[in-house]
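Subject: design request, 261 residues
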């Protein structure tokens, strides 16, 4: 027999303007089994927090995470499983928020289900040992160009405008070419629009001081409406700042564009 499980992912996003977050916990409800439980372990996820957000204070992260756990503990002691779970989907606390409710049908018992969900979404093995998707794409592109004589010409470089606004670009070859992976793979409409707005601001500020040939290596979400908005942004960027969009899964096309004669 398969049981219907509903679950939420607890997420941490310290800099909302950047739109990057990591999953730090999972909460599960099974009404059939009258089960409500969570798995949240700050010690296990903090190495990922530090790798993605190196300047963020650990004590602030721990305090926020502990508060979210206290809310769950309070509900668990005083409410029915369903009444514990449903209100959490709209709960936010500063840098912490929950995903939309997801549904899973599984024959396993709740303890096994919650462990599997935690391993998949929080430890995030699918993103190669806790790296964000943009970091993964950066790693892939670097491995693609490394074998070529010109590949070593691409270095990280930080650009800063007159007001001190800065942005690190992972691929910059002298004053000739530059490239930045951008992951738009989100189903959250607000986060998608925030990211597009952020990149319009970044390019407006910093593109004049970057190499003329600037490539946006992008990843699209599954939602076709979102894809349309992203393609509109990429076309606008191409016309306004002369950027060149490249799909992140087009290996040969990326190599051809980044090649230096």
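Subject: RE: design request

Done. Sequence follows.
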């Amino acid at each position: 027999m398969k049981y219907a499980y509903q679950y939420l992912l607890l997420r941490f996003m310290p800099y909302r303007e950047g739109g990057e977050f990591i999953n730090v916990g999972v909460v599960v409800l099974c009404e059939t089994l009258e089960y409500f439980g969570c798995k949240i372990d700050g010690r296990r996820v903090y190495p990922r927090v530090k790798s993605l957000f190196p300047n963020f204070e650990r004590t602030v992260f721990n305090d926020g995470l502990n508060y979210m756990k206290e809310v769950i503990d309070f509900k668990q002691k005083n409410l029915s499983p369903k009444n514990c779970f449903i209100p959490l989907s709209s709960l936010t606390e500063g840098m912490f928020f929950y995903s939309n409710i997801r549904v899973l049908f599984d024959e396993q018992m709740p303890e096994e289900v919650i462990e599997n969900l935690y391993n998949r979404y929080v430890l995030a093995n699918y993103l190669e040992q806790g790296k964000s998707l943009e970091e993964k794409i950066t790693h892939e592109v670097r491995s693609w160009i490394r074998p070529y004589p010109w590949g070593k010409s691409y270095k990280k470089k930080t650009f800063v405008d007159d007001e001190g606004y800065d942005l690190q670009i992972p691929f910059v070859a002298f004053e000739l070419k530059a490239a930045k992976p951008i992951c738009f793979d989100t189903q959250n409409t607000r986060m998608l629009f925030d990211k597009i707005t952020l990149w319009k601001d970044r390019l407006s500020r910093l593109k004049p001081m970057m190499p003329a040939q600037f490539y946006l290596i992008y990843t699209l979400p599954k939602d076709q409406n979102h894809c349309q908005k992203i393609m509109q942004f990429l076309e606008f960027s191409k016309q306004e700042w002369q950027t060149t969009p490249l799909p992140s899964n087009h290996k040969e096309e990326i190599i051809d564009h980044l090649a230096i004669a």
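Confidence is low (pLDDT under 50) at residues 125-131.
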